[in-house]
Amino acid sequence: MTRTESIAQAPILATRDLHVYYGKVHAVQGISLEVCPGEVVAILGANGAGKSSIIRALVGLTPVGGGAVLLRGQRIESLPSEARVRLGIAYVPEGRRVFGDLSVHENLLMGAYVVADRAQIKRRLDEVYDLFPRLKERTGQLAATLSGGEQQMLAIGRALVREPDVLLLDEPSLGLAPVMIKVIYETLRRIRERGMTLLLAEQSAHIALKIADRAYVLETGRATYSGQAVSLRTNRALRESYLGA
User: Fold this and answer.
1) Contact indicator for 49, 218 with CB cutoff of 8 Å
2) pLDDT tens digits for 37-60?
3) Helices (H), strands (E): how many in the chain?
4) Helix (H, G, I), strand (E, B), or coil: what is residue 214?
5) How far apart are CA 42 and CA 7, in angstroms?
6) Which of 32, 161, 177, 183 sits at 20 to 30 Å (Cα–Cα) from 155?
7) What would you measure as the largest C-alpha separation in the chain, in angstroms?
8) Mean pLDDT of all residues in the chain?
9) What's the average model confidence in pLDDT over 60-86?
10) What's the burial of 31, exposed, middle or buried (CB within 10 Å: 0-12/13-18/19+)?
11) d(C-alpha 173, C-alpha 161), whole Å
12) From 3.40.50.620, 3.90.550.10, 3.40.50.300, 3.30.1490.20, which CATH number describes the 39-60+80-242 domain?
């Protein structure tokens, strides 16, 4: 199956008229989005636009105040996070959130807690170490002693060990040096080329648009643009209208 054929399939993950509230704050106001198999979709917007709230609602960390979350066409917004993980969703949180007092290898094993087959775990670990040679060099090192970029590698690797159907990343470039951002996004490109479906929330639009197929631009909880990422990359008027750049 070609990448184009894969993207033409029905959405693997979607929201329909999604609403999220924090008390009286209406953080996400009726967002409908979809991600198809093999596709890379970016959610863009300034800090506070609602990007992270959408990601957290998809993985079950923030309650849905209205609307639906669908995985393979089935509603899952009432399911706990663990159930969503078992159904094939993996999450890389903002700020990495690795287990600092555990080694690199132990952190990766934490990502495989839903996998029972030891041979399968070993294969997945080998694949992560192939993607991130730096992690292989530091298997016994405590995660707290890694650089920010290395911790982001570890957070992504921990999610990939589950071999998910769709990988959600919240601000993967946040707080990283430009050279490390380039490394992280080059790795995400390689992950995409292996057929992984990605949904990423990013404030740095120009970075995300380099690998995204489609994009949603948010402003104060609403989608002001949804369409092909190439349009935002190449159309200056669109960039100025929706991204201010």
Assistant:
1) yes
2) 999 999 999 888 999 999 999 999
3) 11, 10
4) strand
5) 15
6) 32
7) 53
8) 89
9) 95
10) buried
11) 21
12) 3.40.50.300
Bigger pLDDT: 18 or 1? 18
User: Which one-letter amino acid corresponds to residue 47?
Assistant: N
**137: its two tokens:** 């060099």
- Taking residue 130's Cβ as centre, other Cβ atoms within 10 Å add up to 11
pLDDT in tens, 154-203: 999 999 998 899 999 999 988 888 998 999 999 999 999 988 999 999 98
42's tokens:
């970016």
Query: Smallest Cα–Cα separation from 49: which of 220, 208, 170, 177?
Result: 220
Query: CA-based angle 59:63:69, to the nearest 5?
Result: 55
How would residue 245 be classed by pLDDT, with cut points 50, 70 and 90?
low
- Residues 124-162: pLDDT tens digits? 898 999 999 999 998 999 989 998 889 999 999 999 998
**pLDDT, position 67:** 96
Amino acid in the structure at residue 141? Q
Amino acid sitting at position 147: S
Rg (CA), the chain: 17
For 123, the token pair is 């294969």
Length of the chain, in residues: 245
Token pair of 241, please?
């209208």
Q: Cβ neighbours of residue 213 under 8 Å, at least 6 residues apart?
A: 7, 39, 40, 41, 228, 229
Count CB neighbours of 17 within 10 A.
11
